[in-house]
Amino acid sequence: MKQIITVNINSEARELAVESHRSLLDVLRLEAGLTGTKKGCDVGECGSCTVIMNGKPVNSCLVLAVEADGAEVLTIEGVQRSVDEPHPLQENFMKCGAAQCGFCTPGIIVAAKALLDENPTPSIDEIRFALAGNICRCTGYTKIIEAVDRTARELHSATQGVAA
Amino acid sequence: MNARSFEALDVPDVVSVDAHRSVIGTSVKRSDLLGKVTGDAKYVADMNMPGLLHGKTLRSKIAHARIVGIDTSRALALPGVKAVLTHQNVPRVLHAGSPHPRSASVTCDQYILDGKVRYWGEGVAVVAAITEEIAEEALGLIDVQYEELPAVFTVEDALKPGAPLIHDRAPGGNLVLDPVVFARGDIEKGFAEADLILEGEYEGGRPTPAYMEPNVCACQWDGNGNLTVWISTQTAFMVRGIMAEVLGLPLHKVRVLVDHMGGGFGAKQDLFQTEFLCALLAKETRRPVRMEYSREETFLGGRTRHPAKVWLKQGFRKDGTLTARQARVVFNSGAYGSHGPGVTIVGTSAMTSLYRCDNIHLEGRCVYTNSPIAGAFRGYGVVQTYYALDIQMDEAAVALGIDPVELKLKNAVREGDIAPSNHPLIGHGLEDCIRRGQQEVGWAALRKRPRDGEGVIRRGWGVGCEMHGSSAYPGIKEQGNAIVKMNEDGTVVLLTGTAGLGTGAHTALAQIVAEELGVAFENVSVVHGDTDVVPWDIGAFASHTTFMGGRAAQMAATEVKRQLLDRAAKQLEVDAGDLRVRDGVVTVLGMDRSITVRDAVCAKKGIPAAQFVGSATYHPTKSYSFAAHFVEVQVDTETGQIEVKQVVPVHEIGKVIHPVGAAGQIEGGIQQGIGHTLYEDYQIDLRTGRSLNANFVDYKMPLSMDMPPIRTVILETAPDPGGPFGAKGVGEDPIVAIGPAIANAIFDAIGVRFRHYPIKPEQVLQRLAELHASRSPE
Predict the structure, then answer these.
(1) What is the DSSP-derived secondary structure letter of residue B709?
(2) Rounded Cα–Cα distance for residues B279 and B501 (Å)
(3) For residue B554, which of B496, B499, B625 has the smallest C-alpha distance?
């Protein structure tokens, strides 16, 4: 039994026919063709499927797609500023070596974006806390935290009109 | 919590003795990362295939049993189910799960599906259906009748006379292979010369790699008998070889494709039953089939580190000189051999080295049990044995009243000492690492600091050491291969069989080619992950890729450079020997004449463009990297909680190709090593063999809140002439050295010696209570 839902995904209104038991994760990956959001556990333990829904980071595997009816969803595909311009978080993840195998990376960048949207000047501990639901097995987190911290400083400097 | 800020890019300190190079040694932007940070990178589970079917595996809920009946009729009748396979309708070919070619350590002990199950969670049937849900539902409709057999879960039980035999193969008695022995000198004489003899039993738990991307493969036949396999594997050519063998196909009919993969850490070298079954389901249904593990299945049907017991006895003179070392190591292989032989040989023989000793006798055993399959995992047996060795060195230092760092320095292996591979060591890498770490942390002052033996929160420092070979040679007669082509605009393509595990190895290889050819890094692209196209490679494991694949790439680039300079010499009307190429320009030495690489290659009037191709095969020597980790821990004596406060890892890796990438390997290895030592243990019920914590809530790993600051130092003091520009491996060492460093630091903090991992808070409390009771007057 399918239901029609309307979701604004990455600033584009999408009408999708979904089965009521389907997770938002599966619908994003299978119906919307947005495979950047990863399935690492499907039970809310790893954070690889993090998307921003109505301004809050969520594990999309724990959200039923029908719950997202009418919602605004941002996935990793919507994070970059334009085709040729990655988001500063993405730039810094590359620069700092904050991604290795890359499987957790979309979820972590989205979680970090949710943090910076909410708190543009997080402390190191606030960054660590915000990412505590995202498992990375390659990096030891050091470079991830560094990349988020650098981004926060750069963005903050830019908004304050201070040279970075 | 240790807060720190990152003002400057946090690159490791690199202590270089090498001349300036333009591409290697710089942290160029990795060529695979843009796709990964934007979500565009496609992993196997992301691929869209028209007509795709989903395969699912029915797993045994009994640890040891014969299958006496299996009825699939109800599953087949479910609408949407397209095929069901059991041991009754798949080829029965005995094969090894870890088929290293030309290796003594191959253990042929498994079938695609067997009429017997040997561990709780083993696959007994598979279904292909139009959706994952239907496939799951169909699994519940398969009726399997088992005749239960007695099961054994510990090595002690498995080795008892009369224990149930898990396999009917030599050498028998549940041994995976005959015991291995490494001996030199005379241990009786050595122990007789000792002033102090220590002996102890050390035990390692069952951590799993827990890569973030669950195992996945997809198969499709093209109608002409050609099979294509998309798979997340470290060893595409081994997958091709064993799938061809088991399915009865020549190699050119099997094409294995690997692009991005979400980590492996060693374990994604094996074949996991599903690859064959996926191919057979695709054949039967004439449709593409994909099989993705659930997270639970990555535990059940994945691979773990070998649980191990190490009995170790060493003799010392009063001045700290080692006189004898004797050890018996027993590895628990689980239900199949997988990497048991390799791990047993590498892990046991590692104890011939690290700390010098003339009189050595080491025995290694590997034992089948009805437990989850242990396989390859970063550190490969050495995590277990060096944990024992390094902790006992610390015990000896205490008993002898010597600074443990001084004791390790005194006995550290040095240039010319015989390595576990039987090759003489190059350089004094271990000594250099220890000395540098001493300076970095101010060890002398730390030793003299006032100690708090009464406070609730106590801190301590410890040191752990490690050496690890680059490549699996000579245990496996491997080789590095590469093809380098120069395009008619001077850009370059490297074809390599090495796998992109996620470490950035292909970036390092491109850097090596760029450096050798004198062109910009951005002008080199890398083709990999297609067994029909790229030259053969054994796979990404054992710190093979940069050392072997990198050296082969360098050699192939050298050949292209020769061709380039020959052509440039004709155009410049000079001798090729007078030319050098750098930054994309060929210049004549001592003269103000030059030509760009692009102009030298491209077509001109009357001269066609050149096609330069170089190919190379590298037969290795043996090379060792070294590390010393200095660790500070904090122990809460009221809760038993152990927190790692800071780590100073010092690694000697010959020549660093990409400093940020190398540091990333070290930091990631430390994360996994902290996990091993303090949290991670995949557990089974010792009565039934049932898995107890096959998920990320109950299997505890270090998270972002748990990681300490890491101050990485990389040394280049012992470059290896066999490696590209002297480079050696870096992937294995960090996970080994961190463990004993933590255990030794815990002793320093609270005076309690732990000889096992993981070390858990309740054990800390129990041991502190015992210590307190033993010190209290009766």
Answers:
(1) P
(2) 23
(3) B496
| Spatial CB neighbours of B224, under 8 Å, sequence gap ≥ 6 | none
Query: Which long-range CB contacts under 8 A does B406-410 form with residues at least 24 apart?
Result: B406/B320, B407/B320, B408/B355, B408/B434, B408/B463, B408/B465, B408/B628, B409/B434, B409/B435, B410/B319, B410/B320, B410/B321
Domain residues of chain A, as ranges? 2-78, 88-160
C-alpha span between B216 and A35 (Å, rounded): 15
Residues of B within 8 A of A123 (CB-CB) are 3
Whole-angstrom distance, CA of residue B236 vs CA of residue B230:
9
Class of domain A2-78: alpha beta
For residue B247, how far is the Cα from the chain centroid? 28
CA distance B749 to B125: 52
Q: How far is B293 from chain A (nearest CA, A)?
A: 9
Residue in chain A lying closest to B658 (CA): A97
CB–CB of B9 and A75 under 8 A?
A: no
Residue among A103, A123, A142 whose CB faces B262 most closely: A103
pTM over 0.90: yes
A113 touches chain B (CB under 8 A): no
The 3-state secondary structure of A35-93 reads CCCCCCCCCCCCCCCEEEECCEEEEHHHCEHHHHCCCEEECHHHCCCECCECCHHHHHH
Q: What is the mean pLDDT of each run of 10 residues along chain B (778 residues)?
A: 42 62 91 96 96 98 98 98 98 86 75 97 98 97 98 98 95 96 98 98 98 98 96 95 94 97 95 96 98 98 98 98 98 96 96 97 98 96 98 98 98 96 93 98 95 91 96 84 96 95 94 97 97 94 91 98 96 95 94 94 84 94 94 98 98 96 97 98 97 97 96 96 94 96 98 98 97 80
Question: Under a CB-based contact definition with an 8 Å cutoff, are residues B106 and B100 in contact?
Answer: yes
CATH number belonging to domain A88-160: 1.10.150.120
| pLDDT tens profile A60-118 | 999 999 999 999 999 999 999 998 999 999 999 999 999 999 999 999 999 999 999 99
- Give contacts of B41 with chain A, Cβ < 8 Å: 102
Q: What is the pLDDT of residue B101?
A: 60
Q: Which three-class secondary structure state does DSSP give residue B234? A: coil
Yes or no, beta carbons of B704 and A132 under 8 Å apart: yes
A25 touching B (Cβ < 8 Å): no
| Per-residue pLDDT tens digits for B731-752 | 999 999 999 999 999 999 999 9
Distance from CA of B755 to the nearest CA of A (A): 25
- Judged by CB atoms closer than 8 Å, whether chains meet at B668 and A138 is answered as yes
The CA radius of gyration of chain B, in Å to the nearest whole number, is 27
HSE of B449, CA atoms in CB hemisphere, 13 A: 16
Nearest CA in chain A to B44: A35
Q: Residue for token digits 């594990």?
A: A59
What b/e sequence results for B168-200 when a residue is b if at least 16 CB atoms lie within 10 Å of its CB, and e otherwise? eeeeeebbbbeebebeeeebeebbebbeebbee
Contact A86 B672 (CB under 8 A): no
pLDDT tens per residue, range B56-73: 999 999 999 999 999 999
A152 touches chain B (CB under 8 A): no
Domains of chain B: 1-21+428-469+623-778 (3.30.365.10), 479-618 (3.30.365.10)
Give the list of residues 6+ apart from residue B134 with CB closer than 8 angstroms, or none.
Answer: B78, B79, B80, B81
The sign of the torsion formed by the CA atoms of B172, B174, B178, B179 equals negative
- Predicted pLDDT of residue B5: 38
Q: Is B360 helix (H, G, I), strand (E, B) or coil?
A: strand
The reply to whether ipTM tops 0.90 is yes
Residue contact B664–A136, C-beta within 8 A: no
